[in-house]
Specification:
Blueprint lengths: L8 H14 L4 H17 L14 H4 L18 H4 L2 H11 L2 H4 L4 H14 L3
Helix pairs in contact: 2-5, 2-7
Length: 123
């Protein structure tokens, strides 16, 4: 585990470049990767049938055509604590992932593509 501490923003910039050069994700992005894997498994129907209605598409919520009708519906929240639950953070993260990355046919291809997408933001 790489731990970098500094009071200047210059070292923070060097740290992000280091993560980019070493081709590894930060701890914060590890959370995103794990949540994205959960969402990929859900969208691939790899969970028991009881989870089928856990996340719903916008098209099932309303019947008018919008640009986001095939995205997952995000539930409104009032407290910050609920924001970090899988039920709320999952659809928001899944909708933010590139559609090419979401369409990967295997879990390993998805993980590799998503990690590359995250690491590309470091540079």
């Amino acid at each position: 585990m790489i731990q970098l501490r500094s009071k200047t923003s210059d070292c923070v910039l060097k740290a992000t470049n280091l993560f980019h050069d070493l081709n590894i994700v930060t701890v914060f992005d590890m959370y995103k990767v794990q949540l994205a894997i959960f969402m990929y498994n859900h969208q691939s129907r790899k969970f028991p049938p009881i989870f089928d209605d856990y996340f719903i598409a916008n098209v099932t919520v309303h019947d008018h055509c919008t640009r986001s009708q095939f995205r997952l519906h995000t539930i409104p929240y009032k407290t910050n604590t609920r924001y970090f639950t899988v039920r709320l953070a999952g659809p928001k993260l899944w909708n933010a992932i590139n559609t090419d990355t979401r369409g990967k046919c295997s879990l390993n291809a998805f993980k590799t593509a998503y990690k590359k997408q995250l690491i590309s933001f470091y540079h």
